[in-house]
């Protein structure tokens, strides 16, 4: 060591002694020390523990993969980074192991009391400690890599809570951070050589500087160093292995070091790709993925995408034996490579794989396959995937765009149009006639595209290659514009957005789907990646997300209720309302069904009777005859959710189970029984006349004494051991059949048979239902739209009501409830709506910075229907009938244009909406 290094060594030893990190030693162990210059030119003490590490039993505790750590960030927008102060020195060494850490210096022999840097097991030990400390928060809002802690949140409010938890945990564990290296409350932050932000992840510019200034390698070791740094960021570089192939070839033992022009070109291209690396999206965890795979004689390549954004690139060179594969197997190898590499993203998700090899579409139906293909097919079957042929040409170009309609000018005075056109000005009309004060003028779209083409480096490069004789597909049109075939090339930037917006949002296109919009636009426009960009634009359209129906299988697999153990312990309940009022005053039926035997009770009552009266009926008719049930499944009728009813059942020990909001399928048993009941009542009133409640007891008897398919017998037979006698079937039943131990055995056997039949019926029902359903899952914090029933007001239900939005929102998901339901954060305007919804009522929200969300525009009632209230009376008239005259008023409704007004009865409107009719004289 030189004099400067000895001074630094003496200084650092004194500092370690004063902190109590080391002590004088008499150990037989003794590692040498080095002084190393750091990036900031300061000196650091390094102990060479290589000899100790060779005889140390390795700790196999896994360190996390960097890319998998970043995958947890999802939709995070606020970040803080905490760097522990000399993290290893905050962990004590076991007393018996202290002598092993000894090191020798010119100023004495010392040993560590805390864990030193340089030990082979130090990273694993510290990683284990940090994981145990933050176990319950990992991948929720904390990721840890050794002594680096990243706290991430979706909002500033969340972030404050998360930071408090992390800092309090560090305080309790007596771990200390170095404030100068910590960063808090940032929207983008450097972490592990990357820049993390709400947009995704990108390469840290400081690391790129090292690549940019990297000198041309002069040896195999220098090539390996460069490839090591570049390979750390290979997910950002498309076709990394193909580009690097000339360099990696030089690292093989049999190759002589010969730096050729190809090597220099590969070296320069890798540096350029890393300097201009894109921002990669982070996977959202659901919503499906797309993979674009390709293979060549040199290597395999693939791209992973979600919601139209690149998540990662991957590639590798072919192994020696793979160079002999036929084209079909190479293309299949590329697919297998992608599925293995990204299995942690893809398993359990819907995947669309695009390949430019047509025969792969039929890979699952081939009759003759070799052993290699057989192994690969077994792997493919583990994934929910769809192979799609995507021609190589289409793969490179991507896809299309829109025609600008001339119809904008149809109502503009001809002479003004002519004057404007002579000036080279294009007119953009407002959508409402007569609003000339809002008239805008701007340069012709084609002229602006032509002007922008001159400043687009990619288009100019392609045109230059065309002039040099290369086939790029670009040509110059007589008007001076660049064309791809006959299609106008649109440069990147706002012009593309303008073209897509015109093709999608104008009154002459009215929100077409992505395929139709692309096919329209491709006739006129072209740019690289057009089809994908059009699809992304349409998927993010807020109007489309709110009004277009989902043409997919119903979301959420069937979740059957558990089969009861005994009779009348588990019930379902519902009400049939809206029936004609009888002389007894009844106009509704309370339907109560035993879920095991399917026996039912039909109790007539009058709508408006208090919950106390219904409770008394329940005690007399149900509890006194069948006992207290264990549980009751019902919808969220106010009679079932009232405080009195809940208190009564709580005192009886009965558990109430409510269906999720606006999902009546939860109580499917009652719904199906009501259908049968209504059909039988209709038949009775037609055949026997009289009020419906005159026949209700006969309907109940008939229903319970009739064969039920799911239990393979009649409900009475399941309940009493035999069917009841009826005039149709005078079964000879004597005391011999009613008494004795045989009846007990028979009853037990019947219950076993019923439960077996119910299980079989449930299995059949679930198997059939799940064929027409799909798995759809969300994570807390994601945003979703809520399906609504588009009706208006309380008087009318006209065609225009059906044209209201199908979905409202988006709303945050608070938590998952059960297997197929979610709790939403609803705004105050929806406080009367229960906030747990079945997954089939939800639709994933695709965000975009252009969206302006306003929940105040639509009023929703507690039945989850749009309530559009009348805002004014436009006109009056009388409807003259033979015996009377009915006064009508023409009503304007909220959110409608005047042309969508309706004629309503004035009497009804006065009762419902008196504010429309101000009293005279006021």
Provide a quick synopsis of the model.
With 922 residues, the protein is of the alpha+beta class.
Description:
This protein has 922 residues and is of the alpha+beta class. α12 links the parallel β16 (350-355) and β17. α6 (205-212) packs antiparallel against α9, α10 (327-341) runs parallel beside α12 and α18 crosses α19 (530-539). It is globular and about 115 Å long. It has 29 helices and 38 strands. Helices cover 34% and strands 21% of the residues.
Comma- or semicolon-separated keywords:
single chain; 922 residues; alpha+beta; five-stranded mixed β-sheet; globular
Q: Give me the number of helical elements.
A: 29
Strand percent estimate: 15-25%
Stretches where pLDDT is under 50 for at least 5 consecutive residues are: 392-417, 419-443, 555-559, 661-668, 728-740, 790-803
Q: What share of the residues lie within helices? A: 25-40%
Structural class: alpha+beta
Q: Mind describing the biggest β-sheet?
A: 5 strands, mixed
Radius of gyration: 37 Å
Mean pLDDT figure: 72
Which SSEs are present, and which pair or pack?
Layout: H1 3-19, E1 22-24, E2 33-37, E3 43-47, H2 50-54, H3 66-70, E4 78-83, E5 103-105, E6 108-112, H4 122-133, E7 142-145, E8 148-153, H5 156-172, E9 183-186, E10 188-191, E11 194-197, E12 200-203, H6 205-212, H7 220-232, H8 240-250, H9 261-275, E13 289-295, E14 299-306, E15 309-317, H10 327-341, H11 343-346, E16 350-355, H12 371-380, E17 384-389, H13 392-397, H14 414-422, E18 425-428, E19 440-443, H15 445-453, H16 457-467, E20 474-476, E21 482-484, E22 487-489, H17 494-505, H18 514-521, E23 525-526, H19 530-539, H20 542-547, E24 554-555, E25 570-576, E26 588-594, E27 600-605, H21 611-626, E28 631-634, H22 638-641, H23 643-652, E29 655-658, H24 668-688, H25 692-704, H26 715-720, H27 735-738, H28 741-771, E30 773-774, E31 783-787, E32 807-817, E33 821-825, E34 836-838, E35 842-844, E36 870-880, E37 885-893, E38 902-905, H29 906-912
Parallel strand pairs: 13-16, 16-17, 22-23, 24-30, 25-28, 28-29
Antiparallel strand pairs: 1-6, 2-3, 4-8, 4-9, 5-6, 7-8, 10-11, 11-12, 13-14, 14-15, 18-19, 20-21, 21-22, 25-26, 26-27, 31-32, 31-35, 32-33, 33-34, 36-37, 37-38
Helix pairs in contact: 6-9, 7-8, 8-9, 10-12, 18-19, 24-25
